[in-house]
Write a structure and sequence with these properties.
InterPro entries: AAA+_ATPase, ABC_transp_ATP-bind, ABC_transporter-like_ATP-bd, ABC_transporter-like_CS, Oligopep_ABC_C, P-loop_NTPase. The protein is built from 10 helices and 14 strands. With 341 residues, it is an alpha/beta fold. α3 packs across α4 and α4 packs across α5. It is globular. The N and C termini lie far apart (44 Å). The protein binds adenosine-5'-triphosphate, iron/sulfur cluster and magnesium ion. The site of adenosine-5'-triphosphate has 13 residues, from β2 and α1.
Length: 341
């Protein structure tokens, strides 16, 4: 058994995911996209940890690595399972991994493409229970009907197909499916981004109600700062594969200590027609994770950069109670918090 503070449900250490870049006829590896590069953070029971950052900074990759939906390059993921045992998800063999997946689930981004159009709602929600051999026959049907009611769907509709439901209802189906195995921890990856604003609010309320009722912990990934501020207890900010700041939601929004967080908070949200929510657009180019700048990755865009920033990579330093920032000058700069969010 592995050690972890009793106050944690998840403890991610030194997580890395490097995607090889292959070229030529022989598909030689010529470099790596460092999508997640030495990330550490933790989540407490019943807590929502919000993860924010510009597109391509590694949020989805990190979420999937934690569940081993994709295989991380290295790192450890300590997780407290339903029996209270602490397991390193990274070390589990196939059988144990399948068992622990009942406790850790994923809610997908797009309720339109993530549900199989040829399966009934009954079969979609029942699938994780069938795969795990947990329930059969009438018991299975009863459980699915209960899950549908739990997420605010009419259980008489369980023989219908996904196309008969609206976007918000489909996301409820996705949530019911994620809840089927009674997990303790759920990764919500842009779970409301594809929905209309009014529907977003309903789904967020549902996620919060379920959290309270079932004692769930969430890793809530979003590029929408308003949503992140509303739902999270603590927030992590990612930039080019690295976690650059973590703090309680109130502290992060009121007094950020990393210039990248300040830039995110000051950016005007730009409506994204692909997703119904707003997109973060900052001035300057996001660094390329296959060929990041020297020193602090943010230095080419940072208004506070000094010579040291071009050569030395800053480590995480503590700047307050539970507040960490990876900037050489964290705690010394006078940075602006959010206004009007
Ligand atoms: N399978 C893959 N092979 C190679 N590179 C990948 C793969 N998946 C992701 N990447 C790269 O890893 C980086 C991080 O991508 P990721 O999807 O995790 O970002 P994200 O923060 O979730 O972005 P978004 O906000 O757009 O969803 C990007 O540079 C992306 O191009
Ligand atoms: S280390 Fe330097 S470049 Fe990086 S965020 Fe801090 S001030 Fe800016
Ligand atoms: Mg993503």
């Amino acid at each position: 058994m592995t050690d972890m503070s009793a106050q944690l449900v998840l403890d991610v250490q030194a997580m890395k995911k490097y995607f090889p870049i292959k070229k030529g006829f022989l598909q030689k590896t010529v470099g790596y996209v460092k999508a997640v590069d030495d990330v550490q953070f933790h989540i407490r029971p019943g807590e929502t940890f919000g993860l924010v950052g510009e597109s391509g900074c590694g949020k989805t990759t990190l979420g999937r690595c934690i569940l081993r939906a994709i295989e991380p390059s290295s790192g450890s993921v300590l997780f407290r399972d339903r029996e209270g045992r602490v397991r390193d998800v990274m070390q589990l063999e196939a059988g144990d991994l399948r068992a622990i997946r009942r406790d850790m689930q994923l809610i997908f981004q797009d309720p339109y493409s993530s549900l199989n159009p040829r399966m009934t709602v009954l079969n979609i929600i029942a699938e994780p229970l069938v795969c795990n051999g947990m329930l059969h026959g009438a018991e299975l049907k009863e459980r699915v009907a209960h899950l549908m009611e739990l997420v605010g769907l009419n259980s008489r509709h369980l023989e219908r197909y996904p196309h008969a439901f609206s976007g918000g209802q489909r996301q409820r189906i996705g949530i019911a499916r994620a809840l089927a195995t009674e997990p303790k921890f759920i990764v919500c990856d842009e779970a409301v981004s594809a929905l209309d604003v009014s529907v977003q609010a309903q789904i967020i309320n549902l996620l919060q109600d379920l959290q309270e009722k079932l004692g769930l912990s969430y890793l809530f990934i979003s590029h929408d700062l308003g949503v992140i501020q509303h739902i999270s207890n603590r927030v992590g900010v990612m930039y080019v594969g690295k976690m650059v700041e973590t703090a309680t939601t109130q502290t992060l929004f009121a007094s950020p200590q990393h210039p990248y967080t300040e830039a995110l908070l000051s950016a005007k949200p730009v409506p994204d027609p692909r997703r119904k929510s707003n997109r973060i657009i900052l001035s300057g180019e996001v660094a390329n994770p296959a060929n990041p700048p020297s020193g602090c990755y943010f230095h080419p865009r940072c208004p506070y950069a000094k010579d040291k920033c071009k050569t030395e990579a800053p480590g995480m330093r503590q700047v307050g109670d539970g507040h960490f920032a990876a900037c050489h000058f964290a705690g010394e700069l006078k940075l602006k918090g959010a206004s009007g969010l």
